[in-house]
Amino acid sequence: MRIGILGTGTVGLTFGTRLRNLDHDVTVGARELGNPRAVEWAEAHAAACGTFADAVSGAELVINATAGQYAVDALEMAGGNPALAGKVLLDVSNPLDFSTGEMRLSVCNTDSVGEQIQRAFPDARVVKSLNTVNGSVMVEPSLVPGAHTMFVAGNDADAKRVVVGLLGEFGWAAKDVLDLGDITGSRGMEMYLPLWVSILRAVDGNLAFNIKVVEG
Amino acid sequence: MRIGILGTGTVGLTFGTRLRNLDHDVTVGARELGNPRAVEWAEAHAAACGTFADAVSGAELVINATAGQYAVDALEMAGGNPALAGKVLLDVSNPLDFSTGEMRLSVCNTDSVGEQIQRAFPDARVVKSLNTVNGSVMVEPSLVPGAHTMFVAGNDADAKRVVVGLLGEFGWAAKDVLDLGDITGSRGMEMYLPLWVSILRAVDGNLAFNIKVVEG
């Protein structure tokens, strides 16, 4: 699959490396052309790099791995609704805002980044997933032993199937993927983040954790 | 133990019944004296009922089972800081607000009900717990099979020990209780609620579910 990744931070390049190992055709996109980190990574992994627009153009699947509060801006720079129309857009971002010195979400409660993206780009087929675990676990769920749960939310059933297929390539068993319905489900997935951070502290900083939904 | 319960809704009376079955001395408190539901329940369970102040007076442990957005008001009516001073105050409430027609939290992101209560009543020993599961599961965790996780947060280590002891009487194994640190941990525990509601829908309304933290 031809996959474009927006964002050249740790999460973006973690996706890039895993997707190259799975033999996908990858372009990572940065805010500015010639981003040294992206260039270096692309050379080392036989992948392409360019602008946000370069990453989206020609991609069958777009992964938003930018910081959540800048996601709509980044996707606008990538060409907006015309460029994204019909494409599956996997949003793995979180609206983490540390500008006040303590962690808060830049949007929550009555809205979410997933919903903002779907509203801003109505012809994109937005699927929220993977934001509830650390980047390493996103692409290698076996870092956490046994069964544990990944959520998906989005308005387009076919787009969710594509994403669940990609999750399967990463190692997420279909039985462990829980469909939360339409894109408003991203609200709960993003608002889980403060609990995730508290759990991370309680497990002494071990990033290889997740939650499992257990049913009676 | 002499336990006072604030709130005569389903959660309050579920606690009352379970605590009476465990042979604790229980007083349920309502906003107004003579609340018919409370009177009827108390008669049937050889327990006492009265005002919020009656429930707090003489209690060694107070359980706040009122709606989160009214919790501080209810505790103020119960006598406020002088009445609560030194007492363990287990807050199981959630700030659910349906006044706009869709579910939202009345406080979140930079604050929480647990923190509001601790600030308003600085001499109470507030512990947040149990709000992350349905009332039936709170007092009967075996409704969900196998191991699953309960969180506690609070500033007072001894108060947390008292609460973990009570959780043990309900059936929560100590190894499944995860201490999230001080009362600011209640922020994540309350912000988990939108995800809880989404999961509830995804499991077709089966209230007997919880999450388990799985670590690599």
UniProtKB/TrEMBL annotation, chains A, B:
It comes from the Bacteria. Pfam families: F420_oxidored. Residues 2-95 form the Pyrroline-5-carboxylate reductase catalytic N-terminal domain. Keywords: Oxidoreductase. This is Oxidoreductase. It comes from Asanoa siamensis.
